[in-house]
C-alpha cells in the first residue's frame, strides 16, 4: 500500500480540522478586538487617534484573514489529503502542552518560582534525560536567579503562592 492510498486519518490528523478551528478562534478574537475598540472609540480626538483606532483596523484585518481561511476550508471540503501532523508528532506536542498547562495552574497554587522549578526539573529529567545531579541544581538555580533579578534588582514582584509567602519570598 502506498502512502497516497492511506487516508489522512490513518496517517495522522488532517489539515482541515486544525485550520477550521484556528480560523474560528482568530475570528472570535477579531470580533472581541473590534467590539472593544468600538467601546473605547475609533475616531479622532483633538490630540490624535482615540485608543481603539489602530486596534479596530488590526481587528478588521484579522477578521478578514480568518474569514478567508474559514471559507476556503469550507469550500475545499474533505477532499484535501494533506496531513497536519502524524500521531507521533501529536504525541510530542502533547508531551510539552500538558506539563505546560499543569505549570500554569501550579503558578496560582504554588507561585511562579516553585512551579518553575518543577517544570524545569520535569523537562530536564523526562525529556532531556539528565540525572538528578544536574537537574536539581539547575531547576532550583534558574528560579533563584529570576527571583534575584526581578524581585531584588528590578523590584518587580512576580506571582507568589502560599509556600513562597511562608518562606518570606
UniProtKB/TrEMBL annotation:
Database matches in InterPro entries: DUF1468
Domain DUF1468: 23-159
Coiled-coil positions: none
Keyword terms of this UniProt record: Membrane, Transmembrane, Transmembrane helix
Matching Pfam families: TctB (PF07331)
TM stretches of this protein: 20-42, 54-75, 96-124, 130-150
Identification of the protein by name: Tricarboxylate transport protein TctB
Amino acid at each position: 500500500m502506498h502512502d497516497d492510498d492511506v487516508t489522512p486519518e490513518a496517517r495522522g490528523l488532517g489539515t482541515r480540522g486544525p485550520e477550521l478551528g484556528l480560523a474560528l478562534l482568530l475570528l472570535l478574537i477579531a470580533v472581541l478586538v473590534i467590539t472593544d475598540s468600538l467601546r473605547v472609540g475609533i475616531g479622532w480626538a483633538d490630540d490624535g487617534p482615540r485608543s481603539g483606532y489602530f486596534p479596530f483596523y488590526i481587528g478588521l484585518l484579522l477578521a478578514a484573514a480568518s474569514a478567508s481561511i474559514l471559507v476556503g476550508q469550507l469550500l475545499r471540503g474533505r477532499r484535501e489529503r494533506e496531513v497536519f501532523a502524524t500521531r507521533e508528532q501529536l504525541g510530542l506536542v502533547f508531551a510539552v502542552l500538558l506539563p505546560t498547562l499543569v505549570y500554569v495552574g501550579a503558578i496560582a497554587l504554588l507561585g511562579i518560582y516553585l512551579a518553575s522549578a518543577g517544570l524545569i526539573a520535569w523537562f530536564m529529567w523526562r525529556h532531556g534525560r539528565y540525572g538528578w545531579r544536574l537537574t536539581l541544581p539547575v531547576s532550583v538555580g534558574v528560579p533563584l536567579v529570576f527571583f534575584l533579578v526581578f524581585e531584588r534588582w528590578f523590584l518587580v514582584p512576580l506571582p507568589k503562592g502560599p509556600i513562597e509567602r511562608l518562606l518570606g519570598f
